[in-house]
Amino acid sequence: MSGKSSKILKADGKAAREEKKRKWEAKQQEKELSVNRKRKREQWCEKHPEYTTFVTEDLIAQVLGNEKIHGVPSLLQPYINLREGSQTSDDDSSAYFIAEGTETIRLLIRQSTENNPLKIHVNSIVVKPSVLFDEPVNLLQDLERIALKKDSNDGSHKTSRVPFHVFVAEDHIMSKLAGFQIARGALACGDVPHNRDAEWLMKYLLELRQGDDSPQPIRLLAFDAISDTANLGSMIRTASAFGIAAVVLSHDCCDAWYRRSVRVSMGHIFRVPCIRVDDLAAFLNNLKKGPFGVISYAAVIDPASDLRLETMEKGKKAM
Q1: Which of 73, 103, 109, 241 is deepest in the core (most CB within 10 A)?
Q2: Which parts of the sequence belong to the tRNA/rRNA methyltransferase SpoU type domain (predicted)?
Q3: Would 183 be classed as within a structural domain?
Q4: Are residues 74 and 35 in the same domain?
Q5: Which residues contact 88 (CB under 8 A, 6 or more apart)?
Q6: If 0-12 CB within 10 Å is exposed, 13-18 middle and 19+ buried, where does residue 54 land?
């Protein structure tokens, strides 16, 4: 081997060693950054123990292995084995819903703190650290916006408590809790509004009318015997896009607050109230007897159905 070839081999070997060293150092630096990032997140949770918990393997084992847990860990029970579809609280038999997806949870967080008739009570959220702390999602901004409120008297800001519990959990822990791989990065549990009936809807519509300086017709969307929760969620999302004021369901419609329906609605069920009535035809006919009248309607009716909207008399007042 010539001296020139030997020098080339030595140079190549040195370059390879330097590249290997550079990659090793970069990997070590990334590990260190990851450890520091995780520690900072844990420290943030430790600073807000009143509403934040960093979920560990031990906590998950406690929740999965004990049906009679109390306190903060009990808030994780609604997320256990989500595929089974249970949506009833063991404490007081009140119904709850499960929401999924980062932007859906963001919408829910904002809706839960607004002072309006559509306010939703949220019990807890479960989020991945990256979803809570990192861009582009950064749900922490929404939480801090809740916690830092402006005083209406002097304009100063004061800190208040986030009104629901925040669980921070890594991917594998969220998946272990839910019973399947969680890809959406955020879950939430809230109470299904229990007071929304025909009487509530009429009061809600009156409030809409009173707050409207230039009244436009209020549009309702009525569904009869819808059985597919995904279809219902999709129609609720579409209703929101078209400015529908409320959705009215017949007694035999599927549950609008079922997990699949909430997911497909992409959170718009929080914006469009849904009520269930025993007799859909009677409810729609009774609209014209109150402060509202029906000026128009459109429907596709199954010929075999007892519902006959074509027999409705149109009222004189614009709804």
Answers
A1: 109
A2: 221-297
A3: yes
A4: no
A5: 94, 95, 96
A6: buried
pLDDT at 84: 53
204 and 185 within one domain: no
pLDDT at 293: 64
Cα(292)–Cα(23) distance, rounded to whole angstroms?
A: 72
Range of the domain at 150: 52-191
- Overall pTM surpassing 0.70 (yes/no): yes
Q: Which two tokens stand for residue 259?
A: 């997990």
Asked, for residue 251, whether it belongs to a domain, the answer is yes
Name the region of 101 (left: φ>0; alpha: ψ -120 to 50; beta: rest): left
Cα separation, 80 vs 69, in Å, equals 13
Mean pLDDT score of the chain: 81
155: left (phi over 0), alpha (psi -120 to 50) or beta: left
Any bridge partners for residue 148, and if so which? Answer: 159
Cβ proximity of 248 and 204 under 8 Å: no
Q: How many distinct structural domains can be found in the chain?
A: 3
pLDDT digits (tens, 9 = 90+) for 81-123: 887 554 544 343 468 999 999 999 999 998 887 778 888 999 9
Most distant CA pair in the chain: distance in Å?
Answer: 106
State whether residue 100 is helix, strand or coil.
Answer: strand
Q: Is 187 exposed, middle or buried (0-12, 13-18, 19+ CB in 10 A)?
A: buried
Strand ranges for 212-253 from DSSP E:
220-223, 246-249
**Beta carbons within 8 Å of 148's beta carbon, 6+ residues apart:** 157, 158, 159, 160
pLDDT in tens, 237-254: 999 999 999 999 999 999
Structure-token pair, residue 287: 């609209």
Domain identity same for 85 and 56 = yes
Cα 45 to Cα 51, 169, 173, 198, 311, distances in angstroms: 9, 11, 17, 43, 60
Whether 317 maps to a domain, the answer reads: no
Residue 139: phi and psi, rounded to 5, are -65, -15
What pLDDT score was predicted for residue 89? 42
DSSP per residue, 1-45: --HHHHHHHHHHHHHHHHHHHHHHHHHHHHHHHHHHHHHHHHHHH
